[in-house]
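Predict the 3D structure for this chain.
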Amino acid sequence: MGGKRLIYLFSLISVGCAAASATVYAATNNASVHGYDMENSYIRLSVEQDKRQSEYLRYKLKAVEGQLNNNEDDNKDLTYKYFYSGITSFRINGTDYVYGRGEDVGTPSFNADEKSHTSAQRFGDVVIEQKLTFSEGFTKGFDDMLKISYKVLETGESAYVGTDIVIDPMIDTDDRAKFTVSGAEVGKEAFFSQNIPAEWKAEMRQSSSVSAYGKTNGVPHAPDTLYFGNWNKMYDELWDYSSDINSDINDGAVSVKWEPVKVEAGYEFTTYYGIKNYAAAADGNNVKLVDTSDSFPKASAALFAVALAAAAASVITYRKEKADEE
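Done. Predicted structure below.
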């Protein structure tokens, strides 16, 4: 009887701890909206919603807690601190446009339940929706990346549409940033037009303690080109930008680009930028942080460890288990 009672007791502990762990886990992804900002435990999105501003509908990203096992990236910038530097442009039927300078369709708004900011603009006969969403990126259960999506809502009779999403990483105070792809540093302007890297990394040059990641796979349509170069050239030249492989990167930016194709309503251009967290995984009786996609965040690690031990004991009771101008 004593053994059965012990099993029952441990089972209750297991269920209780697992439930508590799940509660902590769910809370980390909850989004809240405050004016022009939306945040969860990982990242904060800000969108310029003042139509009088030339940066209208552009956005910037900042870490909140960022990587949960790293306190050094808390409240650090992940993109340039002013709205104007990141820019998305389109080539529609041979004419170039910038998102934010079209005609509004509906009212831009945050939605905390959907963890997103949505707006739409008309460019000639074509209507395009910008949707910025807190989303899983590399690790299941962590809404620690910004899903940047442009969906064609209307096309008129026929439309050929291409998209160029320019991201301007500023990692903490380092506007130059250090880029790496597959472990190799990208120190000079470069581009990939075949075998587009599934991920890229931006970090501080003087320290690897603060970093951000881009993700290009797992999207409806893969980009045609991924550029690493100088922001001023990408911003000024937009669709005419090309890499100079002999030029150093002094003010780093990244262009994710799709060449024009014939599209129908529903066609979507998507990429990701944000944090790469590490999940908590069981190692015998312990919980350690590993690069995986199968478990809970660090915030619930201790409770999760207790739940694992209790569950093991219930089976075998005797075994331990803007200041700048544009």
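The first strand starts at residue 32 and ends at 34.
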